[in-house]
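Standup notes
- DV: blocked on the single-chain target, sequence here:
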Amino acid sequence: MKNKIISLMLAVLTLFSCGALLSGCGNDEYPVEVANIVIEKEPENIVVLDASTADIISYMGYDVKMVGRSDEVNQEWMSVVPSVGSANKPDVKKIEDSGADLVFAGVDLDDSIKTQLQEAGIQVVTISQAETAKEVEVNYVTVGKIIGGNVSGSNEGSNAYNNLINQLDTLKTSAMAGVSADTLYTTCYLYYEDNTLKLMTSGTYGDMLLGYTGAVNAAVNIEETKVDVSILKVANPNFIFYADDATLNAIKSDSTLKNLSAVKSNKTCMITRDEMNRQGQTALNTLDKMLSFIYPEYSEKNHTSTAATQAATQGATDATSAANGQSSQTETTAATSLDSQYKINLDKLSLEYKQENDNVKIMQQRLYDLGYVTDKENITGYYGDVTKEAVSQFQKANGIKETGTADNATLKKMFMSDAEKAE
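- DV (later): unblocked, structure below
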């Protein structure tokens, strides 16, 4: 009898353990609780109003669920997603008509709009702008959990964040491969806000991004964002990144700052606040742009049309414009591969008619983003007639021989940031 009781207890314990394991494998994905919000089931269609959140969603690969975006979500690769208006006062009817069951908003969403959406049965989740590296990681996990579930989504968010950090580090390593160990550059990021010239201080997300350039932030031990010109005069950074023309004008109007060596030698480069704040594929593009400016050898090695040359041209244009009392509006960005954003390995990859696999599905998503595939229902993973025609049209628009077969050259061009969109 004792043995039977022990066996029964073991059986109960085994069933309990199996239940716990199954729960961890997905049975308890929903509901998801985030702060005081409960997401009862996996969202099928989402609208994203906040540009930084959109960058995270896209980098995680969840942009396939996006059926609408605000005008502020202006990343090139998301331009084919229909606009629903501004981030703070979007068109509620457009959001309803899109079939969205969840909206990601920023803190500036109008309260009346939020109420209308909720009354229409559409949940609204507000994601705050991450100010530190740790907050970025938290946002990745939180967004992943909301879209993908307690376990799968959280893991996806954590993995995506780690992948982002690894890619940032890889770019830095590549840029500094030929740099002497004794070389130490200094830099800073300046922006103009509330009629005050400010700088990116230590401990912030922007400071982390500057750190991946291999240069030391001149504001590394500064907590006050308002620029102290005497400190910058002593630091005398080798390179200065600035947010916009208003910032550059403020720098050149200051009797001390205009004499910094970086300003006098045109080693200044515009990096917009959007570029500096977004935390997905944009972060990689921004770092690539900064590295290309600081390390010309890296740019020559990695780009056909170098960002360093473009930045140098921009510097010369700035100098000429300033001499003429004008403000330069020109900004150029080197084309980059979006393979990491789409999570596809393009090395020697080719895809053919009637194939069916995940790579085909990713290619179809890219063709959809570029406007060559017009119906999301065709993102199936099967390389059928619709996909073949889309590939052919892409090849035609991008100066590639029309075959309908996605050879390696076609795929590499397709996943470049400067790929031609459908008309």
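- Follow-up: Residues 2-27 form the longest helix (26 residues).
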